[in-house]
Design brief:
Layout: E1 2-3, H1 14-21, H2 26-30, E2 34-37, E3 55-59, E4 62-63, E5 87-91, E6 121-129, E7 132-144, E8 147-149, E9 152-154, E10 157-169, E11 172-180, E12 183-188, E13 194-195, E14 198-203, E15 210-211, E16 215-218, E17 232-235, E18 240-241, E19 247-253, E20 258-261, E21 328-329
Parallel strand pairs: 1-13, 2-14, 6-19, 12-21
Antiparallel strand pairs: 2-18, 3-4, 3-5, 6-7, 7-10, 8-9, 10-11, 11-12, 13-14, 14-15, 16-17, 19-20
Amino acid sequence: MALSLFQPVFSVPVADLFERASAIPSYVITYAPIVYLDTQEKYFPSDIGAQLPNTVPEVNFTKLTGYATPLTLNSLNELNADGGKSVYLTSTSDITKSPAPAYLNGVVPDSSGKTNGAVSCAIIVNDHGSGHVDAFYMYFYAYNEGNTVLGQEIGDHVGDWEHNMIRFLNGVPQQVWYSQHNNGEAFTYGCLNKVGVRPIAYSARGSHAVYATSGTHDHTIPDLNLPVGPVEDNTSQGALWDPTLSAYTYSYNVNTNTYTPYVAGTPTNWLYFTGEWGDQQYPTSDPRQKEILGISATAKYTGGPTGPEDKQLNRTQVCPDNGDVCIVSPVLRP
């Protein structure tokens, strides 16, 4: 079902489209998802690079030394030699204080859907050959607000990466992946609601998990979304975000594991960073940390997420190769 509401508002500026279409495959922009943020969202899409001056790299709660300062998107990968996946970009301000550090709030998209002054998306294209192309739309938020269970928020963390992936065949979209927490959902392109030809994605309030429908989504049971339950994500048609209007764009070569920017001068080395984009999970000895009945899985504050490098950019199917059965639904559902 195609929705035509507000379609002219989401058109890409002609100058921008010409610049990007001359390098990135035009269909990657033409069919890019449109994202609706929740009406009660507090933590909006954020500038990827702005995370760095507001954090310091730590390993096991100890600040690293000897790295080149200030950290930039073009030097971030140098931290891999200092701990790799054990490196956490830790907030320099206490995120539990009120008011919270302003950088966590992100940027509210303007009337065109652009996050002005904030590059909040990375589009990564993997050309498998023979007309088979995967386009990843990586969405960045400075903060993830978790769900509320028994009156307590669980799963809050600094930094948040979510994504859609569209699988193309000869420039025609076939399937779309929606990332949600530890997994997600896949649909045929044809069954999705759209703005023009662009599939709609709903970003859940706080957690920013990406859904194909609005409403409530219980994810208590892994890989099973239900309309109601104890651990719910909420989505609605709030502010519209067009990630393509402020995005870095790259091609990805799986044989050499290298990224090449479509636009000269685009920072690239940050994509090789294998560490975490937020604080390490606070131990129970930290007075900021809370758990329900001492259960670690219910911790209020969890560790930050890994970035695009860890999102399986060379998949066999549209779903991640994580051992779960890949179900591509031909019917739109929660």
